[in-house]
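Deviations from the work plan: none for this task. Representative record:
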Amino acid sequence: MNGDEACCEGALAAGCRFFAGYPITPATEVAESMSRRLPEIGGIYIQMEDEIASMAAILGASWGGVKSMTSTSGPGFSLMMENIGLGICTETPCVVCNVQRAGPSTGLPTLVAQGDMMQARWGSHGHYEIIALSPSSPQEMFDFTIRAFNLSEYYRLPVIILADETIGHMNERVIIPQEEDIEIVNRRKPTVSREDYLPYEADADGIAPMANCGDGYRIHVTGLTHDDRGYPAMDAKAQEKMITRLVDKIRKNRDKIIRTQNLYLDDADVVVVSYGISARSAMQAVRDARKDGIKAGLIKLDTIWPFPEELIRSVASRSKAMIMAEINGGQMVLELERSAFGACPVSLVSNFGGRILHPGLILNAVAKAAKEKT
Amino acid sequence: MTTAKAVKNVPPHPMDGLLRTERIPHIWCPGCGIGTVFSAVLAAIKNTGWDPNTIAMVSGIGCTGRMAGYIRLDSFHTTHGRALPFATGLKLAKPDTKVIIVSGDGDLFAIGGNHFIHAARRNMDMTVVCVNNFNYGMTGGQQAPSTPLGAKTTTTVNGSPEEPFNLCDLAATCGATYVARWTAMQVRSLRSSISEALEKRGFSFVEVITPCPSSFGRRNRMGTALEMMKFYQGRSVIRSDIDPSEAVVDIDREIVVGKFVDIERPTFMDHYEKVNRLNLPQWRAMHPDHQKGR
């Protein structure tokens, strides 16, 4: 199956039973698969009037107690930013799959890019933390979609899958495990009475148990800054408290959220960092470099946000150079530079989208970086 | 803090059970008509006899949007204009829930206009109560898609150059199964219309012409809140069952009120079950239990 279809199957395996979306290349196949599959298993597919409505609808469905998702690409992702912010502020579990194409604006609808990395991080206004995952194959589309649901249910926020056109449309074998072999996480429910329940009072791990609509708790949910009761609280003190918790619940659990796949890191001189489809080009380049006798290594970012700062810092301190390979003008390379903190030179291999990175380009950069040192 | 103390000595109100009394006093201006509409909504809800745990209120942004913060139901104060798509997701995820949307004319028909026409077209089973005060009150009284031609607002100081929507006509054209309009002074009719709308299967819509003395009234020299309320009531002419396109709102001549639409039409869920060969009890049984595991 292709990556988009694998995303759909992953969502269903994770327990998703509501999908609201709007057609857009190259993410349409996610919606099409959902429209076929959801009614078969008692779920709801609805095509909304736009991506703003799609995002609003999945938040509503999530409060109705049903795991929900939407999928889109750049132009639709831009429209979703408003209600992604509502999802962050109200701590609503849901999943957004962005199958990236080249922008800005309508850009190249049918061609690959990875230009929405920073939009995923900072696209909605205000300060917040986000979780985003980046699959590099249809199998990872399946696996990461399940993980995205688990993370969203646990940490109570919209989790973003940053896929790309090539992964979305690529056909590869996908192994779907037996139901009992799939780990499923569901939102934590309150155990106290209605009178004692404070909807935004967090447990020790920073996560507040969530009462769904109809559970009898008669909750109030607002996108305004709110107190533990969920009531609007219009002052700096309330803002400080709320944002601190929204940020800390992700930051303090970084180790549990961040995942990378590392190759030849033990003795690598030159380390390529990449993600999504570009990580496959990078992997080829690193293997080719090894054949040429260059001690190259790879960090494949399975989790894009939060960024693995600690790992990068320690690898940078023992590397001769690090290289970011990505299909945009240089977005995650900024994070790489920030995290390397001058411990080694950092460079970028990229294009502006429309085609994937040729492994030869990355290999050249690796060879150049290795030579410069000696 | 002093106000909170003062509130403690107030005798219980018959609607206290449905109110988040700890949030009172509310933010609405003295003389604002929203309180009257809110009270009619509460009375209508009480009148249905439904279990409060099966009713949800969803609102957008604006003065009316704040109703969701004062009602003791599952209540959702969403983003500007997006109450309807949020409510759509909520309703489909939990089809047993009675969903009431309360919001203003600006929220529902300017920024949320696209969502309104599609929610009505789909015949989502929900009730929309629209407080129409002819302007954006929360932000200090700017022009709205309901502002009468020539009326003054902070963004139309020489008078609005735009013709407003006829909200009831729009709702009816888009497929609403129940459409009514009253002024905030016609409390009994308003209450019974909201009750009927709540009981109605499908997309029901009630528009309430509501005084906003602090902004719209002040700029258009309409006098005190009471004078404004009486003015709207005086202008109103009851013409139930007429074609909603003829049910004009012209504050200089007449405001046509009444019940304009009351029809039967299959809802989104009716069609969804039919085309997918599902029936609701089975569909419910197929829903995963989210409480499992934790």
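The two ends of chain B are 40 Å apart (CA to CA).
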